[in-house]
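Before we proceed, please read the two lines closing this message. Let me know whether the structure tokens fit the sequence:

…
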Amino acid sequence: MVPLQARKPREPSMPTSVLLAGIVFLATACNGPAPQPPAPDLVDLAAVDPTIRIDLRYATTDNFTGAAVYPVARCLLRRDAADRLARVQRRLRADGYGLLVWDCYRPLSVQERFWTLVPDERYVARPARRDGRPVAGSKHNRGAAVDVTLVDASGAPLPMPTGFDDFSERAHRGARGVKPVARANAARLESAMTAEGFEPLPTEWWHFDAPGWQAYELLDVPLER
């Protein structure tokens, strides 16, 4: 029997919180870093349907700003919107027509630039941020809107009421003074788009919103991704 005074003092036990923290650290180290939040559900339209022609005007100087505001000509859309557009293309190709896309997903920072140039909500949605986060903008900023026109079987654009980004009443749906062939082409485009659920914008014959756009958040994701 060891005398009481000779016994080694008992070391204090490790606090439970420290022990749990160590277990969590070891588990993280073994399993790798914590998973990151999923990226926005944006897909490249060219991968969904390569037969759709793409001419992203904002990646060129051929637009109302006179400058290339996109670093690359990529048409990104929400998956559902891209799938719907592919179905529109199939409808049109059956009759010898096709789609030409002018704009798709647009970062909010570009929307802010557009607003400084055209502060008119008939043609450019007003962007806004709160605490640095997007709280208002265009359906384009949600990846749920497209600007499109019609082409023939060879890919040549067909006559339409106006050119792209014509900020005048001539671009409104049902505008007066439009040539019959242009009116018929615009009507064909609208019919094909609405058949797949797209909603036409009254002030721009080329602009269509995808159904369910309200469920998508506003984004400022660069087009390089």
About this structure: Confidence is low (pLDDT under 50) at residues 1-14, 16-38.
